[in-house]
C-alpha cells in the first residue's frame, strides 16, 4: 500500500477556508501528499478581513507537534502564523529537532491588512525561526519589517535576499508580486540565483496566495525535489490557482486549490 509523503503545517486557522491551515491542507492534498496540522491560533475571518484572533497556549502547540512527529513522522514542515514571541520560540525549538526540510512563511499581515504577528515577535522570528528554515518565503512587506530593506525594483530583491539570508535560512525566496509589472520572484542561497517570472492575471481573488505557495514548496520537498525544483513546481501550481481564483463573500475571494482537477 502506497503511503504518501507526509507534510506538517504549523499555522493559524482561517475560518473562511482561503488561507492558513485550511489552504495548507488543500494544497498538500492537491499535490499528492498527506497533510497534518498543528494549530497555533484560531481566527474569525472571511472575505472582508480578520474579525478576531486567539492564539493557542504554547503547551497546546507543543503537544500537537510532538503527537504528530513522534508517531507519524514528517518529511517536510511549513510554518505560518505564529503570533507571539513565545509561540515563535516554542516552534523554533521544536523545529531544531526535526530532520526534515522546513519552509518558513514569516506571516506578518493578512491579505486584508490585518496584523497577524505582534511587533515584539519580530526579533524572535529573526533570531530563532529563520535559522531553522530550509527556505524562507517573505513578501516585500515582510522583508521590510524583518530587515529594513525596502524593495522598489528587481535589483533591490538581491539586497533583500542577502538581508534575509544573513539570519540563517539556507535559501530565501523573495516574493516580488507587489512590484509593478509582471510578477517576479527571486530564489537565492547567496551563491545561486533563480528568477521566476510569470504573467499577472486580472483577478483580484488572491486570498491565501502566500500560504499556498509555501505549502506547495513543502509538499514538493517532501516528494524529493531539491529547493529550486520545488520552488519552480510550486510556482506553477500557484499560478494556476491564482488564475482560477473565485469570488466568495463580499470581499477578496480565495485562489482555487483544486484547479488541476477541473
Automatic annotation (TrEMBL):
Catalyzes the phosphorylation of hydroxymethylpyrimidine phosphate (HMP-P) to HMP-PP, and of HMP to HMP-P. Gene3D superfamilies: 3.40.1190.20. It catalyses: 4-amino-5-hydroxymethyl-2-methylpyrimidine + ATP = 4-amino-2-methyl-5-(phosphooxymethyl)pyrimidine + ADP + H(+); 4-amino-2-methyl-5-(phosphooxymethyl)pyrimidine + ATP = 4-amino-2-methyl-5-(diphosphooxymethyl)pyrimidine + ADP. SUPFAM superfamilies: Ribokinase-like. One of its GO terms (biological process) is thiamine diphosphate biosynthetic process. It comes from Streptantibioticus cattleyicolor (strain ATCC 35852 / DSM 46488 / JCM 4925 / NBRC 14057 / NRRL 8057) (Streptomyces cattleya). Pfam families: Phos_pyr_kin (PF08543). Residues 14-256 form the Pyridoxamine kinase/Phosphomethylpyrimidine kinase domain. It comes from the Bacteria. This is Putative phosphomethylpyrimidine kinase. Signal peptide: none annotated. NCBIfam families: HMP-P_kinase. One of its GO terms (cellular component) is cytosol. PANTHER family: HYDROXYMETHYLPYRIMIDINE_PHOSPHOMETHYLPYRIMIDINE KINASE THI20-RELATED, PHOSPHOMETHYLPYRIMIDINE KINASE. Transmembrane segments: none annotated. GO terms for molecular function: ATP binding; hydroxymethylpyrimidine kinase activity; phosphomethylpyrimidine kinase activity. Keywords: ATP-binding, Kinase, Nucleotide-binding, Thiamine biosynthesis, Transferase. InterPro entries: HMP/HMP-P_kinase_dom (IPR004399), PM/HMP-P_kinase-1 (IPR013749), Ribokinase-like (IPR029056). The keyword Methyltransferase does not apply. Pathway: Cofactor biosynthesis; thiamine diphosphate biosynthesis; 4-amino-2-methyl-5-diphosphomethylpyrimidine from 5-amino-1-(5-phospho-D-ribosyl)imidazole: step 3/3.
Amino acid at each position: 500500500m502506497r503511503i504518501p509523503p507526509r507534510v506538517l503545517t504549523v499555522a493559524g486557522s482561517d475560518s473562511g477556508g482561503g488561507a492558513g491551515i485550511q489552504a495548507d491542507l488543500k494544497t498538500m492534498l492537491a499535490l499528492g501528499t498527506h497533510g497534518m496540522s498543528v494549530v497555533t491560533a484560531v481566527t474569525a475571518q472571511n472575505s472582508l478581513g480578520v474579525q478576531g484572533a486567539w492564539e493557542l497556549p504554547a503547551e497546546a502547540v507543543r503537544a500537537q507537534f510532538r503527537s504528530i512527529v513522534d508517531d507519524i513522522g514528517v518529511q517536510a514542515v511549513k510554518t505560518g502564523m505564529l503570533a507571539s514571541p513565545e509561540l515563535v520560540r516554542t516552534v523554533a525549538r521544536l523545529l531544531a529537532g526535526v530532520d526534515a526540510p522546513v519552509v518558513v512563511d514569516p506571516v506578518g499581515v493578512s491579505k486584508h491588512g490585518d496584523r497577524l504577528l505582534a511587533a515584539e515577535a519580530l526579533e524572535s522570528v529573526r533570531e530563532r525561526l529563520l535559522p531553522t528554515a530550509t527556505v524562507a518565503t517573505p513578501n516585500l512587506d515582510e522583508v521590510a519589517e524583518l530587515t529594513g530593506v525596502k524593495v522598489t525594483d528587481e535589483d533591490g530583491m538581491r539586497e533583500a535576499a542577502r538581508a534575509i539570508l544573513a539570519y540563517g535560512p539556507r535559501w530565501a525566496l523573495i516574493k516580488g508580486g507587489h512590484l509593478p509589472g509582471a510578477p517576479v520572484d527571486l530564489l537565492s542561497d547567496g551563491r545561486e540565483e533563480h528568477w521566476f517570472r510569470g504573467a499577472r492575471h486580472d483577478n483580484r481573488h488572491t486570498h491565501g496566495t502566500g500560504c499556498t505557495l509555501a505549502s506547495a514548496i513543502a509538499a514538493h520537498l517532501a516528494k524529493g525535489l531539491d529547493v529550486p525544483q520545488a520552488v519552480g513546481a510550486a510556482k506553477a501550481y500557484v499560478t494556476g490557482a491564482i488564475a482560477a481564483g473565485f469570488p466568495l463573500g463580499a470581499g477578496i475571494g480565495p485562489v482555487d486549490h483544486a484547479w488541476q482537477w477541473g
